[in-house]
Amino acid sequence: MKRISIAVLLLLLPIPVFAGPELKGSTEELRSYLLDERSIIVISGTGEERVRADTAIVSLMVKTKEDKFQAALDKNIAIRKEVKSKLLAAGVPEENVEMAKYSSTPSYSWLGDKPTSYGITNEIMITIDKESQLLLIANLVDTIKEVYFLRTELKHTKKQPSKTKALERSLDDVIAKKQLYEKSLGISLSPVRVVEQAVTEGQPVRFTQEPKKLYGSLSSASDVSGEFGKGEGTPGFGEIVYKAQTHVEFTVHPKRL
After folding, report:
1. 47 near 171, Cβ under 8 Å?
2. Can you name the CATH fold of 55-155?
3. What is the residue extent of each domain of the chain?
4. Which residues of 180-196 are buried (b: 16+ CB within 10 A; e: fewer)?
5. Is 55-155 the same fold as 37-54+156-213+236-257?
6. Which of 218, 57, 82, 221 lies closest to 138 in space, CA to CA?
7. Predicted confidence (pLDDT) per residue in 172-213, tens digit
8. 29, 46, 174, 186: which is deepest, by most CB within 10 A?
9. pTM
10. How far apart are CA 228 and CA 222, in angstroms?
């Protein structure tokens, strides 16, 4: 009877409950909390892939100036047709020759409001994939005084395989650093997640005609085409560089003996 009374008394007394803290919140918040409770490091790796540009976009400008607006416009149209005709005859596809909209620039004398002459400018953008086509364009610049070389932009048509290779090399760099840290610091690293991966395309070199030459004497065909061969070990249209960065989170553990 005495034992039963003690048991009933214990049931009536408050008993402390020992339990861990209750975790509340969204899935992402709980995940962040758990990650913060562990030793986390981020290892960054870089990699690059260098490729030769296989396409170039050459921009020319046709500039005509006459006393009459119609005369300047007609002459500009005739020269553009001549340039296009020679490009097509040399094997450049018609869809690779793009004529931009023209702009007119009237010139005024000191006296009077009526322009004394009119200037018409029109840009031609030519996509090429052969150096022989570049030599043809340079020849057009040299032989037709109204045609000026503006700029050239290098392009690479097979981007995705090159980006993938750059990413693979950045990941290889992460793995190499992980192995070095484990060996040097006596720890074990377990991957948690890839924080970020990114690939940037290095700005290709853009060759631009000097402003003072735009309205003066033009460089020779060899000068224009020679710009593409500058740089040791970089023949043809030159190089484009894809650079990748990879950041990976790892948990740190004591190395097991």
Report:
1. yes
2. Alpha-Beta Plaits (3.30.70)
3. 37-54+156-213+236-257, 55-155
4. ebbeeeeeebeeeeeee
5. no
6. 221
7. 999 999 999 899 888 889 999 999 899 998 755 444 454 334
8. 174
9. 0.57
10. 10
